[in-house]
Amino acid sequence: MKSALILLFSFFQFSGYAYVINRSESGTIIKWSSSKNINLFLSTSTPDLSSIEVNSIVTDSLGEWSSRVSNPINISVSNDGEVSGRNDIYFQSDNEFFSDPSIVAVTQYIVNSTTSFIQEADIVLNDSAHTFSSNSASTKFLGNVITHELGHLLGMGHSQVISSSMFYELRKGQATISADDDSGIRYLYGSSTLGTISGVVAGGSNATSVFGAHVSAFSLREGKIISAAVSDSDGTFTISNLPLDDTYFIYTEPLNNLSSLPNYYSVSKKDFCDSNKDYKGSFFQRCFGSDRGNPYGIKVNSSNKNINIGTVSIRCGLDVPGDYNRAKGSSYDISLVSEDVNNYYIGSSSVGFFNSRLDGGVIKFDDTEDEYNFDLSLYDLYSSFPGKNLFLEVQVHSQPFFSPLRVVTTLDHDDYITPSVYPNLGGPVPVDSDGNYDLDVKLNIPLFADSSKNIYSLKIAPKNIDQLYSSGVVSDIFSAGRYNYNEERHFYFITTRLVEKVGSEFFGVSEKNYGEITDNKSCLDGSSTYKVTGNIIGTATETLRKSTKKDDSLGLACGSISYMDGNPPGNGPVASLFFVIMFTIFAIKFNSSKFV
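^ thats the sequence. predicted structure below, dont judge the formating
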């Protein structure tokens, strides 16, 4: 006897979380058997696009995933709609099929509840309420939707990494998978020769494990989150598929929007701080007082590929360097040089913040700016690093951590007639390669052979992103659903390192010596941490009932359960169910010319 679990994923367009692997109700991973060919049948009929356009876009989206999956994936154009017993991709113009007109697409599949292997899967696109575009610069580009849904079809859940294709809101650039998506699909179907960072998330004096913490690896070189993971019931996590010869900073935060994730994570909690307050996003740092507010960089390379950092504590507040805090309101001499017996190293990593308050419903900042003094005048860099065109790279990040903050930097030097300001608030908001708004700042500051001239002042001023609402861009900056992330603090992460310019590109030369890894067992936070385990519901075997695709999907709403034989459970356990994961895209405005 064979049983099945039917899951259905809805992609909304009001608003599209570490990669998350889909799990069955018993907690096992859902994927295709390695021995099974994945044969897809495409119906190209839609009033929005030509058959040639649909076929080309779907083929390109499939190519994003297929090279990373060991199973052969084949696609054929059928144009005969949906047929039971096969894997279909088709457009549905019957609005009764969808429980909500804001749903852009649905992925549904049948899973063998004994093996957790996917048996059949469909992607249904809602062209009764939505018009799909062939323009890759449009949010409604069909490729954005198809690539995301194909990820679901292969077993991927929603990601909390905003740059990923599997992010739960519809955004530009989702047609191309990100490093986080790549890590997830390789975890499911492939093997990797790249690096891993693992550990245990915990809190409280007894080091109680934390289930459902989102742990991400932020790349110093790339200036973005590369991969992430979610801690299991015992607090363990492994972030995989990390490119070598890079340095990573670990950022831990609660899972949010639990309704968009597999039911396994639905019981995760975050009220582990005093007075039952939620723990906050925080960087992994060593327990020494001098390391407070200075995130620890983990270097991954061919001789140190798989790194276990031990216990990672949750945090109930924001850690910033003590000397930075004492210098608030004046110039801060940030330490750029670290040394060991034989060498000195150029670089830093620290967290800054701006005090804010609500005034008449509007966020206002009590701090006008932070001023950093970059002083390398005592070091003959060109003798230590001969033959190189040297620069000090400075990166300021807030957006990857959902900090609702836009910063403006002002760089000054004795040789400057006027300071250099970035970004220009009179121009458009900068965009990344995918066309999404990018609030992060990256500067490359030239360094002189005359070391006495290597003194710069950098001022960082806060700007309220809510001031951008009138231009309709805020929802595209963090996502319209940013309020779900419970991040009200206005903080930023600033890093520096020494780089050289070769042609038009910059390459790392020297970075901070972070010292030996020590974990957080001696400085655990979250005094009210309690034990939580994943939501596991038992299943039993039952015969799989044949039905039409339309019957399979009608009448489902968020959280509804449908039993294969049409009967509710009696004295025995639930045999099979429809499991619906929905995500709500709040209002996204489509405007091809957004300027602030």
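Residues 4-190+537-582 form a domain with the Collagenase (Catalytic Domain) fold (CATH 3.40.390.10).
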